[in-house]
Amino acid sequence: MAEDRFLLKDATLFDAIGLRRVDIRLEKGVVSEMGVGLLPGVGEEMINCDGLLVAPSFIDLHTHLREPGGEEAETFLSGSIAAAAGGYCRVVAMPNTEPVPDSLGVIDEIRGRTLRLPIAIDLAASITKGRKGGEIVEITELTRRGVKVFTDDGNGVQSAMLMRRAFEASAASGAILAQHCEDESIMSGGAMNEGEIGERLGLKMISSLAETIMVARDVELCKAIGGRLHLQHISTSRAVALVSEAKGDGAFVTCEVTPHHLLLDESYVGSGKSLFKVNPPLRTIDDVDGLWRGVASGAVDVIGTDHAPHPRWKKDLPFESAAFGMVGIEESLSASFLGARRFMGRNPGYLPKLSVGTIDVEELRPPQISVEEFLWLLKLVELLSLGPRRLLRLPNDPIAEGMKADLVVIDPSVKRVISNESIWSKSKNSPYLGMELPLAIRHNIVNGRMIVRDRCVEVERYWR
Asked: What is the pLDDT, as a whole number, of residue 2?
């Protein structure tokens, strides 16, 4: 296969030092030259990026790929194709599979399945053996063998004493403990958020206290013992406040929010559609705004998709009986940006703080969006791209000559109506079906290969 050689012309590049206009030449999987006024060489394809935003490709800390054991819903190949379509170059696969990756032997066997895929897949190991909550895995040993994230996602670790031991191992090894924040003793088999809408629908409900109690407990454990705590898919304004306080106290506490919790609220459940059943549940509009304030302030570190594919027979059921979860990795940026627009409408003038240097937004913004919208777009890209790199301790330097060519090209001018046919994931349980979403991933270049070109994944070229 011929080597991919590209010149990204007139790119507005956003990376770890900020925003700038530059031409970027890509050869042999790396950035070979950067400058202004570069011309394409012989056999080199020029990609016009005028009016588009270029950034390091995204990383997801929270993806369910279902393999092994759940291939009816998703596979490593189908899930990585969907992730590539969403602008990702790497994902962390959750361990609620069969078998559970809780030992080196199982992890090595599963890792063998993740080679030669569109993107990189890191395996998260479980915190407890079999995800049963009874005995912690060999965290220190597995960390030495390359595992960075440990989680029982799908269930929170209920035992405070067991979690204390996990923090001791995290403090010694540097492992990330990613906690699913729910105290099961007060969940009561609920299906949606506790409140007036749930009462009106007659559904069993999940109190926000289930999240608050688990967050508060683990924050205190992290403060007392050390280690690295990452709170998965927080959904309440109270959780944001607890995270912000913990950061102020110097604890190594980070958190993620999902695109669906940034866009949707509990009123969507009123439709009765099980596509809106997710765990943690969609919360109140006040909680949604609380999450956005956490995004703006820096309390929220990353956007994690919690991409959770299910076959139709698990979702086409009455709401209480249907499986929790929704797909969304392909639309993570678009759904989050629509959520930002709605938040701006409710809170005029509320703008985010960026963690990068000074930015001349007025001069470099794409003409299709306002200055305020562009600031929010940059913040979302920061949480999808730069934030995950910080947490995983991956290279997070500005794009420069000699660097690996993982770049996403974002088109701010596009609007799309989401349909079954537009979803690359093997499962179609998307809450965005029928919705018009803004923005699109125009191109995604991973390891120097353009695996998404003009919004289409190049499956035939690379993987069949």
From this structure: 47
Are residues 450 and 107 in contact, defined by beta-carbon separation less than 8 angstroms? no
The answer to whether the CB of 350 falls within 8 A of the CB of 343 is: yes
Percent share of the chain, pLDDT over 70: 98
What's the DSSP call for residue 277? -
Both tokens assigned to 244: 């912000």
Cβ–Cβ < 8 Å for 82, 330 = yes
Domains assigned to the chain: 56-346 (3.20.20.140)
Region 185-202: what's the mean pLDDT? 92
pLDDT tens, residue by residue, 403-453? 999 999 999 999 999 999 999 999 999 999 999 999 999 999 999 999 999
Q: Which of 153, 183, 306, 406 is catalytic?
A: 306
Q: What is the pTM of this model?
A: 0.97
Dist CA 182 CA 432 (whole Å): 25
Task: Please count the other Cβ atoms lying within 10 Å of the Cβ belonging to residue 289.
Answer: 17
Cis check for the bond before 259: say yes or no (omega within 30 of 0). Answer: no
Burial class (CB in 10 A: 0-12, 13-18, 19+), 30: middle
Token pair for 333 = 């940026």
With 0-12 / 13-18 / 19 or more C-beta atoms within 10 angstroms meaning exposed / middle / buried, residue 342 is: middle
**How many angstroms separate the CA atoms of 233 and 88, rounded?**
18
Separation between Cα atoms, residue 451 and residue 456, nearest integer Å: 8
DSSP state of 272: -
Is residue 306 part of the annotated active site? The answer reads yes
The H-assigned helical ranges of 117-254 are 139-144, 160-173, 196-201, 209-225, 237-248
User: Counting Cβ atoms within 10 Å, is residue 105 exposed (0-12), middle (13-18) or buried (19+)?
Assistant: exposed
User: 326: alpha, beta or left, given left = phi > 0 and alpha = psi -120 to 50?
Assistant: beta
Cα–Cα nearest to 392, from 91, 100, 77, 31: 91
Would you say residue 355 has pLDDT above 90? no
44-58 exposure pattern, b = at least 16 Cβ within 10 A, e = fewer: eebbebeebbbbbbb
Range of lowest pLDDT (94-108, 132-146, 358-372): 358-372
Contact at 8 Å (CB) between 122 and 90? Answer: yes
Specify burial of residue 17 (Cβ count, 10 A radius: 0-12, 13-18, 19+): middle
